[in-house]
Write a structure and sequence with these properties.
The chain is an alpha/beta fold. The chain is built from 8 helices and 17 strands. The strands form 5 sheets. A 5-stranded parallel sheet has the order 2-1-3-6-7. A 5-stranded antiparallel sheet has the order 12-11-10-14-13, covered by helices on one side. The longest helix has 13 residues.
Length: 247
C-alpha cells in the first residue's frame, strides 16, 4: 500500500479529495492535515508518506513553509486554485500540479504519473527521476496579479510580453500592463517555450503578438501591445530567435 496524506484547510475540498482517493485501492490515506502548524507537528513525529496531496495557500501560510522547515523525500502533488506558484512547487519535490476544482480524470493522470516515478529494479535512479520530473513540469497558463485591493487572473495567452522595469516585472496585455511577483528568469523556466522567447535581459515576448520585425541595422520587434521602450533582440540571441519563429 502507498501511504498518502492530504494537506488541505478547506473541509469540503478535503472531503472531496478523500472520496476521490478512496477509488484507488493501492493508496492508503493515513492523515488529513489542515494547517501549516499541524503539518509541521505531524511531519516531525511521524514517518513521512510516499505521496502527499497538498493545497498551497493555507489559513496560516503557504504549504511551502512546511517542507522548507522539515525537508521531505515524499512525492508531492500540489492542489490549488491558481498556478502562479508553479516554479516554486517544482523545486520542492512536486511531480504534478492540479488546479481546483479537481476532476477525477486529472487526478487519475497525476497518480499514474506518480507511479511512473516509483523506484523498481528497472526504473531510474534518483538523479534521472529528478530530470524526468523537470521535463514533465506543466507550463504556466495563468497568473494572478493585484490591482489595488483586487485580484485579477490573466491567461498567459492574453499576454504580449513580460518586461522588467525598476526591478519589477510587468505583464503587458492588449489592455494594459500589470505588475507581477515573478522575475524574468523564473518566467523563462515555466512559460511555454513554443510561444514565449526571451529576446534580451529585459523582455520576454509572445509569438502570438508579433506585429512586425525589423532586421536593419539590428533586429527590432514590434508587438500589438508593448511599453514605450523598443524591443530589440540581443546579438547573441538572434539565431535562436529566428529558429524559434519557425518552430
Amino acid at each position: 500500500m502507498i501511504k498518502t496524506i492530504i494537506i488541505e484547510d478547506e473541509k469540503p475540498a478535503a472531503r472531496k479529495l478523500e472520496r476521490l482517493l478512496s477509488n484507488f485501492s493501492d493508496l492508503q490515506l493515513v492523515a488529513t492535515l489542515n494547517s501549516v502548524e499541524e503539518a509541521i507537528n505531524w511531519f516531525s513525529k511521524n514517518e513521512h508518506p510516499t505521496l502527499i496531496f497538498s493545497d498551497i495557500v493555507l489559513g496560516d501560510g503557504l504549504s511551502f513553509d512546511i517542507f522548507e522547515k522539515i525537508p521531505t523525500k515524499s512525492f508531492i502533488i500540489y492542489t490549488t486554485a491558481f498556478d502562479q506558484y508553479t516554479l516554486k512547487a517544482f523545486k520542492l519535490n512536486s511531480i504534478d500540479y492540479l488546479l481546483k476544482p479537481i476532476s477525477e480524470e486529472d487526478l487519475a493522470k497525476s497518480i499514474e504519473k506518480f507511479k511512473n516515478f516509483l523506484p523498481s529494479e528497472e526504473t531510474h535512479n534518483a538523479l534521472e527521476m529528478k530530470s524526468l520530473i523537470k521535463e514533465e513540469q506543466p507550463k504556466l497558463s495563468r497568473i494572478l496579479v493585484k490591482i489595488g485591493y483586487n485580484l485579477k487572473v490573466i491567461k498567459t495567452e492574453e499576454i504580449c510580453c513580460f518586461y522588467s522595469e525598476n526591478k519589477i516585472v510587468y505583464a503587458q496585455t492588449l489592455e494594459r500592463s500589470f505588475p507581477t511577483d515573478f522575475t524574468l528568469d523564473e518566467l523563462e523556466e515555466v512559460l511555454d517555450k513554443k510561444t514565449f522567447f526571451r529576446v534580451n535581459r529585459q523582455f520576454i515576448i509572445s509569438s502570438d503578438c508579433i506585429k512586425n520585425i525589423h532586421t536593419s541595422p539590428y533586429y527590432k520587434v514590434e508587438l500589438q501591445a508593448q511599453p514605450a521602450e523598443e524591443i530589440t533582440v540581443s546579438r547573441e540571441r538572434v539565431k535562436d530567435f529566428k529558429d524559434w519563429l519557425v518552430k
